[in-house]
Design goal:
0% strand; mainly alpha; 40% helix
């Protein structure tokens, strides 16, 4: 049984990738808030609640999280993937002057 507020999106074969899945979900989303959540438990449910409370103040239009803060505990993430992730994010932030640390 799927809750009324959860929808499945079937994408064409060959339309692969996490980014494309998030984009398709954003296009299909309805409601006041859109919160992509990664199913590998990188997101803490209490963070979602805190983000919604901040958005409801009306001070911000968008809130983003970061998995790689100084207080983050990274477990089970392959070292090569972590290094590639951090290098890519740093390169993009320098090249495009983006302030986000977890693109």
């Amino acid at each position: 049984m799927v809750a009324d507020h959860i929808s499945f999106i079937n994408r064409p074969v060959g339309d692969n990738g996490f980014g494309k899945a998030v984009a398709a979900g954003m296009r299909a989303a309805t409601g006041d808030f859109v919160m992509p959540v990664i199913a590998d438990l990188s997101d803490e449910p209490e963070d979602i609640t805190r983000m919604i409370r901040v958005i409801e103040t009306g001070l911000f239009d968008v809130i983003v999280g970061n998995r790689f803060t100084k207080r983050s505990l990274i477990t089970g993430y392959p070292r090569v993937k972590l290094l590639a992730n951090r290098l890519f994010n740093h390169l993009v932030s320098v090249l495009f002057h983006v302030l986000f640390k977890d693109l």
